[in-house]
Structure formats: structure tokens, C-alpha cells
Design brief:
The chain is α+β, with helices and mostly antiparallel strands and 303 residues long. The protein contains ten helices and eleven strands.
Length: 303
């Protein structure tokens, strides 16, 4: 599939993956977990007004649209992305981390892997990675997985795969979206058998060296703050590899009915969050996440 320079290649890839993509006033949006978000990385997102977002909600029929502004221009906020900028070297790490990376490199190596290799070996890594978690929906359905990989093959380097190997065996890999000189590490999968050999350390070290040193990207990111739970991966990246928070302002526009529901539930948010800590109900965690998002949105209005 040939893409013109003027095309939003990320939106094109999402369409190829059969995601719901909507364009309103020249701005591309896609459905993410049941709501609408812009199809851009934060540093290159167009300016969005509440009126545009309201049109997206109305046309899509989704309960709300979420976006952010002021990425990298806000000093502090309840909303952030976890990113890494600048050159990368082992000397920037603690002695313990340097030792783990060097020990891991003795048995493991990293490289970019093509979609055909991911098609052949990747799903097995995903299934093995899922054994570390008690979630039935952690592994994508096989058909959706293969469709995603085939779309990557058709859309050039918008979605790249970076793997860590033991001999010739793929033991972990990352799915990385590439857009305008930045990389978003969407999902990272590890065969747990090789984690004691420091496969996670070797993979992240290799990706930082490739994207920041070789390609000289402006930044790499593990994504935004989670509204559902604290992510140990982001804590790990900040503690071990020097990632930091890049602040922004969260904005949300709801449909009429959903706005009423959120407003009625908001006074009981602390009860919902307390129950989320004690119970595993998927519905309860979704409600708690929506109320936390509303809390962050209101806090950002003060900036």
C-alpha cells in the first residue's frame, strides 16, 4: 500500500487493522477501548476544540472523546506521558542495571524483526507472556493478531517490531508505532522463562540505543498515565532507564447521557476507587477509571 507524505500513516495503519477511524474537519480519530482518541502521537496532534470533539462524539455514537494539549509545555499536571529523550548509554544507569544488561548480552541479542517473523514466532511469545497474568483477555484473538501483523507489512514502517533472541529463538518483542521522529512502545511481550536472564533489560537497552542514538528520534514513549491502575512497567522504566513524566492537559467531551451519568457518580468516586482496590470486577474497574479520568480532567481545568 503506497502512502503519500501528506497522509496520516498512523490512521492508515489503523484502518488496515479494521479499527474504526473517523475524520472530522481534517483530524483523524479512532476508537480505543470504546471511546474516541486522536490518531496521532502527542507531539504532532493538531489543535482540537471542544466543538470538534463534540462532533466526533455525535457522529461516532461513542460515549466520549478524549485528547490532550500542551504536551511538553506544562510544568506539572495530573496527566502525563512517560518518555525518554536524549542520547542513551549504560553509564547513565546504576551499577546494578549495567551489570544486568551486560550479563544479559552474553546470552541474548536484539534486532528489528519483520512482520513475517512476527507472524511465525510472535503469537507463541504472547501466549507464554500471558501465563504471568490472571487475565483471560490478555492475549489478542488469533485472527485480530494476524490482521494487525499483515497490516504492518502493508503500511511500511509505521508499526515496527523489535525482538530479543536467545540463539535463534524469539523470547520477547515490542510493538512500536513510529510517527514523525518519535516512537510509541504500545505492547511489549516476554517469554517469562528468559526474564531471569535479563531479557527485558537487553530489549529496552537495544531499543533505546536504536531509536535515540542511531535514529536520533526526539523521544520514545511507553504511553500516557493509566486511569485504571498504576503501571509497574512505567515505574520500572522511570526507575531503571531514566524515563520521566512529560506533562499535558487532559480534555474530555462526553455525550449528553454519559455526561449526566458521570456527574451523578462523581461524588461517590472515593468509594468506587476503594472498591476497585478490593475487588476484581471488570465493570467496577471501568467505572473507577472513568471517574479517575473525570477527576484528572477537572484538575487540568485549573491549569
Amino acid at each position: 500500500m503506497a502512502l503519500k507524505d501528506s497522509d496520516n500513516t498512523f490512521a492508515q495503519l489503523l484502518k488496515e487493522q479494521d479499527n474504526y477511524v473517523l475524520t472530522v474537519e481534517g483530524i483523524d480519530w479512532y476508537e480505543y477501548r470504546g471511546f474516541m482518541v486522536p490518531a496521532y502521537l502527542p507531539h504532532c496532534c493538531p489543535e482540537i476544540t471542544s466543538e470538534i470533539a463534540a462532533s466526533v462524539v455525535r457522529i461516532s455514537g461513542r460515549p466520549f472523546a478524549r485528547w490532550d494539549s500542551g504536551f511538553g509545555k506544562v510544568q506539572d499536571s495530573q496527566w502525563w506521558y512517560v518518555i525518554r529523550k536524549g542520547t542513551w548509554s549504560l553509564e547513565q544507569c546504576s551499577g546494578n542495571t549495567r551489570s544486568k544488561i551486560r550479563r544479559g548480552r552474553k546470552h541474548l541479542y536484539v534486532r528489528l524483526i519483520n512482520p513475517e517473523e512476527v507472524q511465525k514466532w510472535g503469537y507463541d511469545v504472547c501466549k507464554r507472556a500471558a501465563t504471568r497474568y490472571d487475565k483471560s483477555d490478555f492475549v489478542p484473538l488469533r485472527d485480530a493478531y494476524e490482521k494487525k501483523v499483515r497490516a504492518a507489512a502493508r503500511c511500511g514502517n509505521v508499526l515496527q517490531f523489535f525482538g530479543v533472541f536467545s540463539d535463534d529463538k524469539l523470547v520477547g518483542y515490542s510493538e512500536n508505532y513510529i510517527l514523525k521522529n518519535a516512537a510509541f512502545w504500545e505492547s511489549i511481550w516476554y517469554n517469562p522463562k528468559f526474564l531471569p536472564k535479563y531479557s527485558s533489560y537487553v530489549l529496552i537497552d537495544g531499543m533505546l540505543n536504536y531509536y535515540l542514538n542511531e535514529k536520533k528520534f526526539a523521544y520514545v514513549s511507553d504511553g500516557s498515565r493509566s486511569i485504571y491502575h498504576r503501571t509497574h512497567v512505567q515505574d520500572y522504566l522511570m526507575r531503571v532507564f531514566g524515563f520521566r513524566k512529560e506533562y499535558a492537559i487532559l480534555k474530555v467531551v462526553y455525550s449528553g447521557k454519559f455526561k449526566v451519568m458521570v456527574s451523578m457518580a462523581y461524588p461517590f468516586r472515593h468509594i468506587a476507587w476503594l472498591l476497585c482496590d478490593k475487588r476484581t470486577s471488570t465493570l467496577l474497574h471501568k467505572v473507577g477509571g472513568i471517574l479517575r479520568q473525570e477527576y484528572i480532567r477537572r484538575e487540568c481545568m485549573e491549569l
